[in-house]
């Protein structure tokens, strides 16, 4: 059971870092160059999942991963 809590905290930390990085990126005025000619950051939006899959059904793109998480948590609780 201790391993489940550790994994939960790791997942929550990753989610929190993702949300913070997205909030910070919304404050950018334009593209940011990290290494000139090699790497940079530019804010873009994907209205669906991978490659805009399910872009016409955003509720499904939210509900499906949540259902998988709940099912995975159920399976982990049985171990």
Features of the shown structure:
flat; 57% helix; 2 helices; mainly alpha; single chain; 79 residues; two-stranded antiparallel ribbon
Give the SSE map:
Elements lengths: L1 H25 L5 E4 L3 E3 L16 H20 L2
Antiparallel strand pairs: 1-2
Task: Characterize this entry briefly.
The protein is mainly alpha-helical and 79 residues long.
Radius of gyration: 17 Å
Task: Using the alpha-carbon principal axes, give the shape.
Answer: flat
The biggest beta sheet is recorded as: 2 strands, antiparallel
Query: How much helicity do the residues have?
Result: 55-70%
Tell me what the structure shows:
- With 79 residues, the protein is mostly helical.
- It contains 2 helices and 2 strands; from the N terminus they run H-E-E-H.
- 57% of the residues lie in helices and 9% in strands.
- The longest helix has 25 residues, at 2-26.
- A two-stranded antiparallel ribbon has the order 1-2.
- The mean pLDDT is 87.
């Amino acid at each position: 059971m201790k391993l489940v809590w550790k994994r939960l905290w790791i997942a929550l930390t990753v989610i929190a870092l993702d949300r913070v990085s997205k909030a910070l990126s919304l404050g950018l005025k334009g593209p940011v160059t990290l290494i000139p000619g090699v790497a940079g950051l530019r804010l873009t939006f994907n209205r669906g999942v991978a490659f805009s899959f399910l872009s016409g059904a955003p509720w499904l793109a939210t509900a499906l991963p949540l259902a998988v998480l709940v099912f995975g948590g159920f399976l982990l609780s049985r171990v």
